[in-house]
Amino acid sequence: MPRGGKAYSAVKRCMVIDDVPKNGLRELCALKYYQNKGPQITLQKPTAADSIYRVNTSIAQPRFAVDGSTEPNVYKQSCFHSDNNVPSWWIVDLLRDYTIVEVKITNRDRFSYRLSNFTVDIFSGSQDPRTITNWPMNFGAVCHHQRVEDGHLGASETRTLTCNSPTSGRYVRVVKYSLEPLTICEVGYL
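The line above is the sequence of Fucolectin; the predicted structure tokens follow.
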């Protein structure tokens, strides 16, 4: 079994070998290990945000970004949508530290241009970063910055954003410093 303090799943694969002249039928099995990755790390974890879309708060809850659905239609209660605040931010508490290498983000189907010029940062430790002085202007360890010149995520696109370096942390935030709503349909971590 692999080592290193990471969570793994084992899958058993077997095949039958016809070796009748010598020993008859035999079953040959092997275990393949896969590192547990993806949305299950974030699935149904506690979330918060600076604001919720005021036109219809029931369709835009922060928890919808970790519900396991990549449905890109905001009106199907599957995406988080903030108001027009500066900064707009969304955060998830992973409940313990993880080493994060990549972050997957799914954009909405309409107004996709809004998901640009944002930062994904990571905060470690047991202290909720929202209690830090000058929150939300303080940054955690920056995992990824999507600059304006990098463009925006496409409509309904799920993009894997590779962190600048593997970063350990418990709280992961997406923050945007422009006067447009922040909309995220799903967030997963690898």
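Note on the example: Residues 1-36 form one domain. The chain has no helices and ten strands.
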